[in-house]
Structure formats: C-alpha cells, structure tokens
Amino acid sequence: MDKLTDEQIQTELSKATEWSETGGQIVRTYQFDDFVSAIRFVNRVADAAEADAHHPDMLIRYNKVTLTLSTHDAGGITDKDFALARKADAFAGALVA
Predict the structure, then answer these.
(1) pTM of the model
(2) Which domains does the chain have, with CATH numbers?
C-alpha cells in the first residue's frame, strides 16, 4: 500500500474534520460519558483493527480515548488509516446515539 501525498491527506482530513495530522500520523481524541462507554469503544475498534490487520495506538484516559493511526509498512499515512478512522467514527457515533 502506498503512502498518501500531503494533498491526498488534506483532502481526506477535510472529510474527517475531527482528525488531524501530526508527524506522519492521523490523530483523534473521543470523549464518552464514562469509562465503560470508552472501553466499549476501544473493544469495537480493537475488533475492527484485528479484522483489518491494522492496529492503531490507543491511549485511554478514563472517558477519553485517543487513536493514532499510520501504516508502518508504508512509512506514513495510507488509505488504510482513513478507512479505520471512518469505522472508529461510526462506532463512536453509535455509542453516543
């Protein structure tokens, strides 16, 4: 899988407004009502990541979860990162709704 260009990354970020790019990775922090909801989210992301063989860095701080995505094999951000980001956004939306 090829690394995205800066222009491609910016185009994708314009569709994923809560995400930002920093140091060759995309990052987003989610906030939930409580710890249990945060862990439900983490478990859903973990299941999707395992199915896709694409594992994000996850930081859990009580009701906040920060995901950091990059494709190590490609040396940067790829379509695979944005695909998992979209899944994570959908999981978060389902937990809040």
Answers:
(1) 0.92
(2) 6-96 (3.30.1360.20)
